[in-house]
Amino acid sequence: QVQLVESGGGLVQPGGSLRLSCAASGIIFSIYRMGWYRQVPGKQRELVAAITGGGATNYADFVKGRFTISRDNARKTVYLQMNTLKLEDTGVYYCRGDLPQMNGLDYWGQGTQVTVSS
């Protein structure tokens, strides 16, 4: 029984902030690489940010300097702090966990809607 549950999405004005959370269960969280992905209708799902079990991070160019990914292994939760939000940040944000040592093994959350609008 593996679950990734996102929360924190909503409607926000341009320039505003949101913090997304993804709570995991049913996995040894500390050894999983965790990531946030975004999907917009008509576009492929794209990586926003990722963090390894050791804390190394990677960001898409379009969010660098504005978003921060972090994790709390004790709470089995990964976060995405989103600042200075732009209209083009709108989309469904998905949480993903995978094991780098085991190809093809990954899990996805149901997604949370982020809408940036005036």
What would you note in describing this structure?
The chain has strands spanning 3-7, 10-12, 18-25, 33-39, 46-51, 57-59, 67-72, 77-82, 91-98, 106-108, 112-116. β5 and β6 form a beta hairpin. The model has no long low-confidence stretch (mean pLDDT 96). Strands 2, 4, 5, 6, 9, 10 and 11 form a 7-stranded mixed beta sheet that branches. A 4-stranded antiparallel beta sheet has the order 1-3-8-7, with no helix packed on it. The protein has no helices and 11 strands.
List strands and helices in order, with pairings.
Blueprint lengths: L2 E5 L2 E3 L5 E8 L7 E7 L6 E6 L5 E3 L7 E6 L4 E6 L8 E8 L7 E3 L3 E5 L2
Descriptors:
single chain; 118 residues; seven-stranded mixed β-sheet; 11 strands; 51% strand
